[in-house]
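Recap quiz, item 2
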Amino acid sequence: MASLRLNLWQHGIFVLVLCLVSLPLGFLVLGSFSTARLPGDFSLDTMGLVNYIKVYSDPATYELFTNTFIYVGGSVFLGITMAVALAWLVERTDMPGKIWIYAGVPMTLAVPGMLQAMAWVILLSPRIGVINKSLQSLFALEEAPIDIYSLGGMVFLEGLRLVPTAFLMLVPLLRGMDPSLEEAAAVSGARPFSSLRKITLRLLAPGIVAVMIYQAMTALEVFEIPGILGLPAGIHVFSTKIYAVVRSATFLPVYGQANALAMVYLLIAVVTTFFYTRLISRGERFTIITGKAYRPRRFDLGPWRLPALAFVLLYLFFAIVLPFLAFAYASFLAFLQPPSWEALGGFTLKNYRFLAQYGEVASALKNTAVMVVTTASLTVALSFFVSLVIVRSKFWGRKLLDQVAFLPHAIPGIVLGIAFFWVFLKIDFLPLYGTVWAISIGFTVSFLSYGTRAMSAALLQVHKELEEAAYVSGARPGRALRRVFLPLMMPTLVGVWIWVVLHAVRIAGLPLILYEGPQNQVLSILIWNMWDEGYVPAVAAIGTLLMSALLLLTLLVRYVGFRRQWAQPPSI
Amino acid sequence: MIRIENLHVYYQTEGGTVHAVRGIHVDIAQGQFFTLLGPSGCGKTTTLRSVAGLETPQQGRIFVGDDLVYCSEKKIAVPPYQRDIGMVFQSYAIWPHLNVFENVAFPLREMKGKRGRGEIAEKVARALALVKLDGLADRPAPFLSGGQQQRLALARAIVKEPRVLLLDEPLSNLDAKLREETRFELRELVKRLGITTLYVTHDQLEALTMSDTVAVMDQGRIVQQGTPVEIYQAPREKFVAHFIGLTNFLEGRADAACAGGIGEVTTASGKLRCVLPDNVGAGDPVIVVIRPEDIKIVADANPGAENILSGSVEATIFMGDALECQLAVGAQKLRTKVHPASPLRQGQSVLLQLPAQSCRALRG
């Protein structure tokens, strides 16, 4: 009897996850063949290849490929180069001030991409950019010298944003490398540079390639950076193009075409993910036997110590200090102007007062709180039970369940948004369409892969024997759960919860597709819409508050010690 | 060939500064097999790494051949890649991204002056043949067994024919059977090549069987240096006696010294005649050490026989090649080894003879 009941809930979890993942994907595929203009009119009778023909005969689509390639390739190259340099400097050289890098680099993860992009617009927009204006008046230039609304601007900013995660992935690689491999090169007569080139970098190469592919997936998926920097200039990449097709203000949207685009986008993401997992699973070939825990020899930078430190500080300045300063500065201005005594004299709290009075802010905050708490709790609960089935049970479909739960990892947020958009429109017997609940469900599926990875890893470590030891010590199952299992799992449960909160609050792409109407706005949508309507100083005020809150929260989380659960990228 | 003078090494750890090597003097002649033996943390590896240039000492001088490679006074610290050395690491440090051939060719390719492809191939082949790895040149390095990796590391260390070979516990990652075979092969190989070898180990058996000279280290100092026979038979410190082999210790007080270095010591179990060092005077506290295999069990005391003690068998442990007996002589416990077929049984009373030449008194 007990085993049958157990089997029932295992089947329940299995069916639920299968539905949550395959239903939207099914609608995505079907929708891409639908010739009906609106998802609501969708029926199996009106199917055809019209959307594909329309989309892939358009020359603009090929420009899309080129743009996406330049944007992803450029930002990955920039980001990884900087991350390798940073990781090597802090792990293997005698550069001063390393503690600041270890503390500072992960902090840059706390700044949402959308806000960072907006801050750089405040600095470098050709029309209003503070730096541009200053340079123009300083050198009497006719035109603004730098245009952030460009592929170059997108590459620069996304490159900066890829650094912290790549850095966090590379540091353990460098640290795990047996230092005697490098020492063996030294006693074999290799000079430091030669041994760096022939041994260190060559040994790291597989790891670096894996990090590059992982980060290419990230760059491919990101919506906010190309959304803020590319959309206004009409420079599209996949994520923004799909958004533009669906949320076009001027034309009646052609949903089927968005799906047709999303299919290729999805294919690229799935292929990349496939290569990534292949590479990771073959990684054992390069695992390096570690010997004694000798401190590796520090590369003597000599006169380059201070320039190296300057490089690192410049990165931190660009990634976190400057955006924050730009927002804080703009938030106290009545209108955006270059820094001057006059501007400082005109500082005002007007923007903050405006936020307090503006009705949509309060409702967006409430919606955000509801959405974030729901998403985090749903994700934790669902991924916990999924992992329980995967790790602890002998359920026949547990391998498949593992794979299905991992699948959303490969689906870009915008694509998932489009897919759920169709689902919520079609299942109109549930009043979900356009609500914060729709956003919560979408996010839960999108975070499910991270959640199950983290939970499975933790469950594997909380070995069954630990509970069995409690049983033979006289504890009933309930007591064993409370005294042994839950305390051991608690750091992971809380860690995943916080990770989801921190991510759900900042991502704009999926909510922008799924929400409908001002009463359903969450904070990221509100910021996006206010920015769109040109309330730059007001956005700066929200941004300053949000950044401060996120930075404080990040510091708090680090202080409490959940660092390892969420500060690191989902390991696969 | 290697000379180390008054070497001091400190390093910083979380717990503070550690004085790892405290004024070591070592002089190793051309072609000698010299071993630093000691427990972990005694400074032996730090000394070896200082010779390699992987660790920078704070004081002293190190010569490799005639080259002064480190001198604190003249502020000379030749980097490892400019020293004429080969080294085998404890983890072997085989580069996993290179195959067997390229691992061995690496030191040749890093040498000054262009070398022809033929010359490199020939030298690599010779080195691989010496360690009996010929035929595996194209094998990717990760696909080697532990023993093969160890030999590959050795081939890489000797391929450029350095004057000095440094070995950092090269056998500790091998299983017991292979370790035993490799001990003799390794010594035979370096002796044939005539390379001066500095060997670091915590395994006394390796030190005793392979070395020309053994230096026993403890807490950053060399406590005794000598041939394996001297180290084993004539330990000068309690630490050496304790660290190498099984030893019985009897506390006592020296009586007046006698001629020929033999003196008398009063212990709780009675008076014993032992070898007394020169620095022990009458009344000094001493520790008498005697190896288990030197204790004889005698049927009855011949008149005039010296150092006879009576005791009883407390326990016998069958060891395969010997029977180890734990004996009680009053409150003193002694261990001895007898032939496995010995009829000794628990509880039996026995007479022991401790030959005076095998009893060594050390200052307590």
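Helices of chain B lie at 44-52, 100-109, 117-130, 146-158, 176-193, 204-210, 228-233, 238-243.
Chain B is about 25% helix and 35% strand.
End of item.
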